[in-house]
Write a structure and sequence with these properties.
CATH architecture of the largest domain: 4-Layer Sandwich
Low-confidence stretches: 473-479
CATH topology of the largest domain: Double-stranded beta-helix
Largest sheet: 7 strands, antiparallel
Shape: rod-shaped
Structural class: alpha+beta
Order of helices and strands: HHHHEEEEEEHEEEEEEHEEEEEEHEEH
Helix content: 40-55%
Mean pLDDT: 82
């Protein structure tokens, strides 16, 4: 009953989460649709208002031209009217001055004005004559002014000019209102979230397209350059022999854990007989069982002279196993069921190039370190073009416990043979080692083959490789980048 209720609650919770997600998606979609419609409406309004503004501006310019023509035609009439107006004003001013002067003379000479023969009376009569003359002129000027005023008021050009001026004012008001409306619409367009997002996308879109093209074509050009320029040069370079063949060295490298001298020499589990004078250094993941009487301790590094290489190969915190009597130890991979193990015996004087990453452990004499020499090839073009600058050589007497995915294959040197580069685990130092370009560009471009295959040849010596190297092509992009960089570093240092 509890399981049923739990299942029902889990079902309801999943459906509720789905409902919430669907609702959120619909809300976001509705908001985006509303914003998009508002943006389109604002853009349409702006475009329509711009068109109307263009028409109104054209009409306004036409009114300006018409008003200028009408004003030019009525300018003469208005100028004559203004001249008549000024003349009337001048006469009124003179008449007012005469009245003022006569009144002042009248008021100042109250006695002399009564004598008709006096000079004052004579001046008063002159003022009266002048006032009468100016009054007549003023009356005539007023009549002329009224006639000009009626002529101006009844003039079609003047009326048209005034009408055009009113239309110009109204047109200017409409243009100002339309400009304000356009500014508001443009403000809506500028502040729209959708428009800002679209503008931002359009700004970075050219750069994004260029980066996309670079991401697409740069690797293609780089691989074409590597395959058709670098790889043929590497394939023609002479092979590398880590240590020259010494006629006094007759020790052969043998397989201690298998009766087969070559071919598939590994097994999922090994039974190791450890004499009292020897000790075992082993990765903890490969120690399956051992006697209670055996002494177990920790070896921090495979070899203290190469701590970084030991760390990079995972050969740290190893198990040191010793016993005062012959010990039987069972070895097997405890984490990867596809890995197989093999024990390669290096007698005294024998040397073997081995990548530490394929080591699960070492069997050596007590109190002696694992003798590992480092051989750099910094002045060799082959090493720089393949980025394999250092080789680690193991010296006997010791036994190397080699691990390989799906098994380890050992072959004796002879005619040149090609092996996938990521499968190679090691080879004896008297083998001629080189690289050869893979067969087809398509397989290299698609990542099915490495650019180079390892090529081994020689009259003596052995080389060995794992049967099915790990395939990391399904890893994430970041994992591929980081893993590829780390693999390149390990290749440079022969790890």
């Amino acid at each position: 009953m509890a399981k049923l209720l739990l299942a029902i609650l889990q079902f309801l919770s999943e459906k509720l989460r789905a409902l919430i997600i669907i609702t959120a998606v619909l809300l976001v979609g509705a908001w985006l649709q509303h914003e998009w419609q508002a943006l389109e409406q604002a853009q349409q309004n702006t475009a329509h208002q711009q068109q109307v503004k263009v028409l109104l501006q054209a009409r306004h310019q036409e009114l300006v031209k018409a008003q200028q023509q009408a004003e030019k035609l009525s300018q003469q009439l208005l100028a004559a009217f203004e001249q008549q107006k000024k003349q009337l004003y001048h006469l009124q001013t003179q008449l007012q001055q005469l009245h003022t002067s006569r009144q002042a003379l009248w008021d100042e000479n109250w006695f002399a004005r009564k004598n008709p023969m006096s000079e004052t009376s004579q001046q008063l009569r002159e003022y009266d004559l002048q006032i009468a003359a100016f009054t007549t002129q003023l009356r005539l000027s007023q009549q002329a002014y009224n006639l000009w005023q009626n002529k101006v008021n009844q003039s079609a050009d003047v009326a048209k000019n005034r009408q055009l001026q009113q239309q110009l004012q109204q047109s200017q008001q409409v243009l100002n209102q339309l400009t304000s409306a356009i500014s508001e619409s443009e403000s809506v367009v500028r502040t729209s979230m959708v428009n800002r997002l679209r503008t931002a996308v359009m700004q970075v879109l050219p750069s994004a397209i260029l980066l996309l093209l670079a991401v697409i074509f740069v690797p293609i050009f780089f691989k074409l350059f590597q395959y058709f320029v670098v790889a043929p040069i590497v394939s023609k370079l002479p092979a590398i022999t880590i240590l020259p063949i010494d006629s006094t060295q007759t020790q052969d490298i043998t397989i201690a854990s298998s009766s087969s001298p070559e071919g598939h020499i590994s097994a999922h589990s090994l039974r190791l007989i450890l004499p009292p004078e020897q000790e075992l250094l082993l990765h903890p993941d490969y120690l399956q069982s051992f006697s209670k009487l055996a002494q177990k301790s920790t070896q921090w590094f495979l070899n203290a002279s190469i701590p970084l290489s030991s760390w990079a190969a995972g050969l740290v915190t190893l198990v040191r196993l010793q016993s005062s009597q012959t010990e039987t130890v069972q070895l097997a991979s405890m984490r990867n069921p596809l890995e197989e193990l093999v024990i390669i015996d290096l007698p005294a004087g024998a040397t073997l190039v081995c990548k530490p990453r394929c080591l699960a452990g070492v069997i050596k004499q007590r109190g002696e370190d694992v003798h590992i020499s480092r051989h750099w090839r910094l002045f060799n073009l082959h090493s720089w073009l393949t980025l394999q600058l250092r080789y680690l050589v193991f010296h006997g007497p010791c036994q190397l416990i080699i691990k390989g995915n799906h098994g380890v294959i050992l072959e004796h040197a002879g005619q040149a043979r090609l092996i996938q580069q990521n499968a190679t685990l090691g080879f004896s130092t008297d083998v001629a080692y080189s690289n050869y370009r893979c067969e087809t560009f398509i397989s290299y471009y698609l990542g099915k083959d490495n650019l180079f295959n390892d090529q081994f040849s020689g009259q003596t010596g052995v080389y060995f490789y794992e049967q099915a190297p790990h395939d990391d092509r399904k890893a994430a992009l970041v994992g591929k980048v980081v893993g590829g960089f780390w693999d390149a570093v390990r290749k440079v240092f022969g790890i």
